[in-house]
């Protein structure tokens, strides 16, 4: 069988999307290609964002390939599945232009609202959860036996509630064959100097369940990849001329193999960045992180008070003073250390401003508190509205706009995000 794997050329004009808008490796498609080819299938992977393709050009290339299945991801790279754009306008346009064979949607939208995704994209199949090992099964099995497989049939809508999660131990090292890796330059979350960057993945999921985190319906259970596979990918990137990798893990630094990975990375001419929790680290382990050439460390703090962190179900056992101490220690060894805060109506703004000023003076960048989006399926959405239904994205987006209209949105998204209905009409 032949599978076309497609990432759109993303455009977030007017969107509430607050992820990075630069190019990133479509790791979900690269892992899926690895498993498809291992199963004997032929693949075409098009990264419309990296190649700067139009939907029409991508469609011509897909149809020339004559696939049995055309697979499109509804949000950029696994890194941003947890904070995707709510609208499906652009994926719908790209799938319409590239329609060939059985059309399949993967991503956070089909994971949360498969029936709405099937309708909005007019596609044949919507896959919930992680697709890495599921896509090859579409060609060989009764879809009714496949976890998370949803489709519209003659008997109506079939929605499978299961959420498959990949066996990370079975994901071998990617080799990026037939992928335009030479085009990549962006170093994610690095704000100084020059170089070439790419993304890697050491773990998926997280053992915590913070209310704001959008991982529940995919990438939920914490799992590690083999250290050897990750280091092989890093070495291949060095040979290809890269000098920086960003780990897309929800929570880098968990698990028993951290020391082994950092020791291996320390031997490579490669700098690294990641998102993490500062309470996973102490002075000794931060020294090891710096020795592994870490240059960018982003830490979710969320609130400057224990009560605020508890409201987010952060389950952080450190006092605020200890958090600040570790952030300052890290910054003396790592060029960029960032602490993220989330906006809460009851926060003491003067206390936050003072805490920020103190740490910024020590070289730690502390974000102004940012508003939180209740992504469908997240604990916050469930607390507010219950399980997601076919109107979940509209409901979450309306809530976000109404909640933040008076005091502003994040400075990394559109100044005035448009209503979802308007975005999907564009």
Features:
single chain; about 425 residues; alpha/beta; seven-stranded mixed sheet; six-stranded parallel sheet; 15 helices; 15 strands; about 30% helix; globular
Describe this entry's structure for a reader:
- By secondary structure, the protein is an alpha/beta fold.
- Helices cover 32% and strands 16% of the residues.
- It contains 15 helices and 15 strands.
- The strands form three sheets. It has a seven-stranded mixed β-sheet, sandwiched between helices. A six-stranded parallel β-sheet has the order 8-11-12-13-14-15. Strands 9-10 form a two-stranded antiparallel sheet.
- Strand 3 (69-73), helix 4 and strand 4 (102-106) form a beta-alpha-beta unit.
- Helix 3 (55-65) crosses helix 4 (89-97), helix 7 packs parallel to helix 8 (258-266) and helix 8 packs parallel to helix 9.
- The chain is globular and about 60 Å long.
- The model has no long low-confidence stretch (mean pLDDT 95).
- Taking all Cα atoms into account, the compactness measure Rg is 21 Å
Oligomer: single chain
Tally of DSSP β-strands: 15
Written as H for each helix and E for each strand, in order along the chain, the element string is EHEHHEHEHHEEEEEEHEHEHEHHEHEHHH
Q: What share of residues is helical?
A: 25-40%
């Amino acid at each position: 069988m032949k599978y076309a794997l497609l990432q759109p050329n993303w455009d977030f004009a007017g969107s509430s999307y607050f992820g990075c808008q630069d190019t990133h490796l479509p790791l979900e498609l690269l892992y899926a290609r690895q498993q498809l080819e291992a199963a004997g299938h032929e693949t075409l992977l098009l990264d419309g964002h990296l190649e700067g393709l139009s939907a029409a050009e991508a469609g011509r290339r897909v149809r020339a390939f004559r696939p049995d299945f055309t697979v499109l991801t509804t949000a950029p790279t696994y890194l941003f599945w947890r904070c995707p754009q709510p609208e499906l306008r652009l994926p719908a346009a790209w799938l319409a232009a590239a329609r060939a064979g059985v059309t399949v949607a993967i991503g956070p939208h089909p994971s949360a609202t498969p029936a709405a995704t099937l309708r909005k994209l007019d596609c044949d199949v919507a896959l919930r959860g992680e697709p890495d090992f599921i896509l090859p099964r579409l060609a060989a099995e009764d879809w009714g036996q496949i976890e998370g497989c949803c489709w519209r049939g003659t008997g109506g809508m079939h929605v499978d509630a299961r959420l498959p999660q990949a066996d990370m131990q079975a994901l071998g090292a990617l080799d990026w064959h037939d992928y335009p890796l030479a085009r990549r330059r962006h170093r994610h979350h690095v704000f100084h100097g020059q170089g070439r960057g790419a993304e890697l993945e050491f773990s998926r999921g997280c053992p915590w369940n913070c209310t704001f985190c959008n991982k529940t319906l995919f990438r939920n259970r914490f799992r590690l990849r083999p250290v050897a596979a990750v280091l092989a990918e890093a070495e291949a990137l060095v040979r290809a001329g890269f000098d920086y990798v960003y780990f897309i893990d929800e929570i880098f630094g968990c698990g028993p193999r951290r020391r082994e990975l950092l020791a291996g990375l320390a031997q490579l001419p490669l700098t690294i960045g990641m998102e993490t929790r500062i309470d996973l680290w102490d002075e000794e382990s931060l020294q090891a992180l710096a020795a592994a050439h870490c240059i960018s460390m982003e830490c979710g703090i969320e609130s400057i008070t224990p009560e605020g962190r508890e409201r987010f179900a952060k389950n952080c056992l450190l006092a605020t003073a200890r958090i600040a101490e570790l952030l300052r220690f890290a910054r003396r060894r790592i060029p960029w250390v960032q602490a993220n805060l989330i906006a809460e109506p009851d926060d003491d703004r003067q206390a936050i401003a003072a805490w920020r000023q103190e740490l910024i003076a020590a070289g730690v960048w502390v974000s102004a508190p940012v508003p939180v989006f209740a992504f469908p399926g997240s604990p916050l959405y469930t607390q507010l509205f219950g399980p997601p239904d076919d109107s979940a994205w509209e409901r979450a987006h309306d809530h976000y706009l109404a909640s933040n209209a008076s005091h502003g949105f994040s400075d990394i998204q559109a100044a005035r995000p448009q209503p979802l209905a308007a975005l999907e009409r564009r």
